[in-house]
Known about the structure:
The protein folds into two domains: 2-62; 113-174, Head domain of nucleotide exchange factor GrpE (Nucleotide Exchange Factor Grpe, Chain A, domain 2), CATH 2.30.22.10. 55% of the residues lie in helices and 19% in strands. The protein contains four helices and six strands. The strands form two sheets. The chain has a three-stranded antiparallel beta sheet.
Amino acid sequence: MNETNHAEGGIPPDAAPADGLDALAAAEARATENRNSYLRAVAELENFRKRSEREVENARKFAIERFAQELVPVGDALEAGINAGAATSGPALLEGAQATLRQLYRAFDKGGIKIIDPLGVPFDPEWHEAMVAQESRDHPPNTVLSVIQKGYSLNGRLLRPARVIVSKAPDEGN
């Protein structure tokens, strides 16, 4: 019967009570070690969560920092142009304004802002807002004849549609 008990997971026939206590102590030590490992993992996960929250908050707060750095010189150039315009006028003022506009467009480009200037292209209601439809014999219907206000997109997403005048077929009655 002793052999049967041992084969079924019972106590071996030659096992002493001290061996059982040693096994129990070893199991308790493993349990304590596992609990400590678990607590460290929970603490690491909590620290990771807090660090991630801080990083996301900083990303939101400073997301436009590079773009802002590109716009600051444009503001400086506009201010200098206004001050110079008060003292002088003429071609120098126009050249300064054109240079400032080029600088602004470079800042837009670096910030992922694209200008939508659809002159002469087919009307696209997703990117253009038709303000007026004007008869035209020179252009096919639904072609942008002129741009009232340029549109802008940010990384492929529409910020503002271009406001346009669109051609339509001439009225044959007149």
